[in-house]
Specification:
48% helix; two-stranded antiparallel sheet; alpha/beta
Length: 301
């Protein structure tokens, strides 16, 4: 099989999976669609398996395609590592791929990134947002170098480096907080809980804390960004469990108020990397700077 495989076939395969379309993959890669089709056919011949289900709108990987995806990412990563090793030996130059929650990027990582990019201008950071499970999946599949997650996955194939313990608090508008003060926590039974959705561990932690407090919320509202959650809470649409650092200014200005539900909600954010990941020099630099920067994260500066 190895004699029939080429790196460009794997690159095409990955883009087709990510775009769920041969035509969109062709556009992204700068190929004509027939080239994409040929690459996939040759890869299927080499593997002896059909790799995609052809649907009315796009494609999705077969079971064989899903299994191949992990190795395709590893193949591309190996090629990139070899190129960097040969051309940029111990040079602070190259690309590092990582994924984290949007709220962590906004409250903690963005300032670190400014310092890192200033110190190593030739290192490119490619950052995507996600939640605990899909970040973990990307690391397990070797699709990215690192993930930053809100708790230790506690897996033998994953290394976890603690970065910062995040305090989570329930917040509401000033008006709703006053009503809770008068009527008690049962007032929240009439309100919606706002969160990033069930994929986010904060949502799970909020549900457990509310259950312990005897609160059965009316409904849950899912929003895609931290800023949208904060604005919605300020407008009185509902209440939310958020990182304390994310609403520090709003609490100081009185735009949001703390709800007396529980002060024992904490989340230990940490860096995760596959145990068998062969890190490039730029990736090792980022790892070192991140673990050194834990003081910055804890101070919230």
């Amino acid at each position: 099989m190895i004699e029939l495989l080429e790196g460009r076939f794997f690159k095409t395969f990955i883009v087709v999976v990510e775009e769920q379309s041969f035509s969109r993959a062709a556009d992204k890669l700068g190929y004509v669609q027939s080239t994409v089709t040929t690459h996939i056919q040759l890869l299927e011949q080499a593997c002896g398996q059909k790799l995609f289900h052809r649907l009315s709108r796009g494609v999705k990987p077969t079971a064989a395609g899903e299994k191949l995806l992990k190795y395709a990412y590893q193949f591309i990563h190996l090629g990139t590592s070899i190129e960097e090793a040969m051309n940029e030996i111990e040079q602070a130059q190259g690309t590092v791929y990582l994924r984290m929650q949007e709220s962590f990027f906004l409250t903690r990582f963005s300032l670190f990134m400014q310092h890192f990019v200033k110190e190593f201008p030739k290192v490119k950071l490619r950052i995507e947002s996600g939640f605990h499970q899909d970040i973990l999946d990307q690391v397990l599949n070797h699709a990215i170098d690192f993930g930053i997650v809100p708790r230790d996955p506690k897996r033998n194939d994953i290394l976890f480096y603690p970065l910062v313990e995040e305090k989570l608090i329930f917040v509401a508008s000033a008006a709703l907080a006053r009503e809770v003060g008068r009527e008690g926590l049962e007032r929240l039974n009439q309100e919606a809980m706002i969160s990033f959705g069930t994929d986010c561990l904060y949502h799970t932690q909020a549900g457990m804390a509310l259950q312990d407090a005897g609160i059965d919320v009316m409904e849950a509202i899912e929003l895609p960004s931290l800023e949208m959650i904060k604005q919605s809470v300020q407008c009185g649409i509902g209440f939310a469990l958020v990182p304390e650092i994310a609403v520090k200014k709003e609490l100081e200005h009185g735009d949001l108020k703390l709800l007396p539900i529980s002060s024992a909600n904490y989340s230990m954010h940490g860096l995760i990397v596959h145990k068998n990941r062969e890190l490039s020099y730029p990736a090792r630099l980022l790892q070192a700077k991140l673990t050194e920067g834990a003081v910055m994260f804890n101070d919230g500066r």
